Amino acid sequence: MARSTAIDMRTRLQEWIPKIVLAPSVATTLIFVYGFILFTVYLSFTNSKILPTYGWVGWHNYWRLFQLPMWSVALENLAIFASLYIAICIAIGLGLAIFLDQKIRGEGMLRPIFLYPMALSFIVTGTAWKWLLDPGIGIEHTLHLWGWTSFHFTWIKDSNYAIYCVVLAAVWQTSGFVMAMFLAGLRGIDNEILKAAQMDGASNWNLYRRIIIPQLRPAFLSAFVILAHLAIKSYDLVVALTGGGPGWATQLPATFMYSYTFTRNEMGVGASSAVIMLMMIAAIMIPYLYAELKEPK
Amino acid sequence: MGFLDIANVTKSYGNVEVLHKVDISVAEGEFLVLVGPSGCGKSTLLNMIAGLEGITSGEIAIKGRAMNGVHPSKRNIAMVFQSYALYPNMTVGQNITFGLEMHGTPKPEREAAMKKVAAMLQIDKLLDRKPGQLSGGQRQRVAMGRALVRNPDVFLFDEPLSNLDAKLRVDMRTEIKKLHQSLKTTIVYVTHDQIEAMTLSTRIAVMNKGYVQQLGTPKEIYDTPANIFVATFMGSPAMNIVPARVVMQDGAPHAEVRDASGGVQRLRFSQQNLAGWQGREIALGIRPEAITDPEGADRKSGNIQTLTNLVGVTEPAGSDTFVTMALSGKDVIGRMRADAAVVAGQTFEFAVNMEKAVAFDPATEERIAP
Amino acid sequence: MSAATPGNAVSTGRFTRVLIYVTLLIFALFYLLPLAVMLLNSVKPLSEITGGNMMALPKVWTIKPWLEAWSTAQIGVQPTGLRPYFINSIEIVVPAVVISTVLGALNGYVLTKWRFRGAQVLFGLMLFSCFIPFQIVLIPMARVLGLLGLAGTVPGLILVHVVYGIGFTTLYFRNYYAAFPTELVRAAQIDGAGFFRIFWRILLPLSGPIIVVSVIWQFTNIWNDFLFGSSFAGQASQPITVALNNLVQSSTGVKAYNVHFAGAIYAALPTLVVYIVSGRFFVRGLMAGSVKG
Fold first, then answer.
1. Which candidate from B64, B66, B71 shows the least CB-CB separation from A3?
2. ipTM value of the model?
3. CB contact under 8 A, B61 and A6
4. Domains in chain A with CATH codes
5. Fewest Cβ atoms closer than 10 Å to its Cβ: which of A68, A296, C55, C100?
6. B39 Ramachandran zone, left/alpha/beta (phi>0; psi -120 to 50)
7. Can you give the pTM of this predicted structure?
8. In chain C, where the domains are located
9. Distance from CA of C209 to the nearest CA of B (A)
10. Closest chain B residue by Cα to residue C208
11. B248 in contact with A at a CB cutoff of 8 Å?
């Protein structure tokens, strides 16, 4: 009984088809994502100005980047923006989710209202809030007309406070989404555990503090990762809401990169700022994705 | 040469060999059960017969034709899966005939074959339903219908009953056995349930850690297990394994064990070949049903020995009462008649059927007698 | 204890419940306010906005701002209104959504049902590409689009959106197909069906919900894109988000707020409609993008 049957062609082909089907996507990802990343990293070590050039300057662009006051402002703003944005979104999201989970009449109406801003473009959000926050015609003006003439709300014109306006609009857009994440987490908790805790005499406060919220850990983690990555990538909202101003007051790394690369023609510096942004994202996303994708065994 | 030959087959993933030199020859019409704990390689072997996994070395042949590298659909096999793997978007009828359609069978023939199989499995009224509307038992039947309609050389079953509840499982077990008896087809059946293996098979291959531990008829496997693994895996409750010393008394080998109070008791072996083990430690294997109350002892046995021991726990199970006692420092289970007068905490005279006793080498765990 | 058993087995007192309802309503107002104000003021004449109260109902109702925003408003240098840009957006979004969804479905199928060594790593690489700050690819992308002759064109933008969208669509289909037993594919293989037949006859008929999720997510993302549009679009291929920003930010002349609002609503309308019609799938898409399915 020799090994007469050669592996038949169809089986061979069937083994290759899946790889052939996957190949275009893998190839485009490797070129357009990872190839481009390498290219940008390379550019960040060159003296590129208006167009890519290949004069090697070593760490010069990074050194220059961290000398630039505008970059320091952008980083400082990112720190303020990201921490407030993440903290407030999680607080509002968790609060609304817990409230909605109390067998609320009209939950079906409220949930979509909380969530719809997520469907809008940041440009639309920016347009709307820019106007609401404008002291001349927006909220301040309205309250004055209603008789509260001492009311002052001029943050968007004030370079010390304008960044908080960005936080406000961003929270408005995404906190409903965070609510949906926590609500899904709450709905996944075993009711019998809650009944057992109530038999043990836990008050509602303790029930949430000691039993329920600790079980939402995965939702907290997901919310944090998603919000942090959105914060680092924030660009459109700032463009539409404040244009980075007044002055540099609301510049973020994303707007910095764009303006240095395309309007100030300092491509080398722009590239190095993009590399720093990538590193920030990678520091958050890679451990998260790694943990999520690890074979559950 | 058999109908289905598995010759020297190994399987490796990278550097890890998960199946080691498996050699099984199955005759036409045989019902072979591959049984073992999860991870023993039984499903891998079945998938290799099906062509769903490659063969690292060795050969699998059906009807003398080597199957290495042949596409699953060209092996003339059919398979029933653990999850049934019914196509959720197709009706029962479409599920059954999909394979025939793929093989280019004309529609009238497909319909006829489907009707015949549906009648045989009593699913003719379900043909227009979707799998989602069926009960577990009905799905099981459809999965079998899908396999039967192809009229294959070999049927492969991958734990087909493990998703059913206990009662249905017993019913379907009988049904599969009936089907095999009436159709006389060749079946390879994978399960981790030793009762399924015993009741269904004409032969059993007990597997562990990628090795075939023993290949034989259900009776061979049960009465003369090749090693301690097979002995304890097959049978429920499991065979008792007790350390014992072989001593000679009146010219016959005896097993010397210690009872619950530390006293030495001797049980005479039926097997003379243990004389060579005089003075050495062995692992003595006794099935629970070989330890009874004296009235319940097997009358046909030529070697009933008496063992006086303290009764630990009694568990009445309706038809029998199970008794746990300590023997040579191990918990040993015996099976009494339901109305035997055993009382926990008292001494009792047990009858041990030493004709059924098995001895193992404690070092290699291989059987040394009978 | 109250008669009503809360869904989560936590019972609350009457006072707490009132507090909860009030809080929820305040937040509902907070989320609705910007949209309501935009709608209200888009049907007022400009004089009522600058001189009046933004919360007041219009004294004179007018649809002039809507007409103006659509067809005559000054955008950049031309008084074309948003219409051509709205059409650009559709021309970009439709092919990009279709292509990325088809590729995502095939990728998800391969990655779950035809696993091979290294598949997990490839998927990880594709998934990470969804989260990169796109600033890191802007410069080389501009160069490559130029080299391909696609700079400033609609096909160029379609390419960009497909490339950076397949990570997400692959994730959706992968997680969805992972729930289907691999045995299904094995049974079909034994039945004699090949790669594409199994996909077409068995998996695709079951993929309705996830196709909707993928289409909605891609539609929303690409429609709302601003960064790629503003970086790579030419005058003739600008999407509506870029045009809206130009309209709103233009510094010449009097700021026609009512026209801006009408324009913003035009830009928001398609995604809002999708959200209202199929919110359930929209939420599922959002969740699938953040938590493993």
1. B66
2. 0.85
3. no
4. 69-293 (1.10.3720.10)
5. A296
6. left
7. 0.82
8. 6-64, 83-288
9. 14
10. B89
11. no
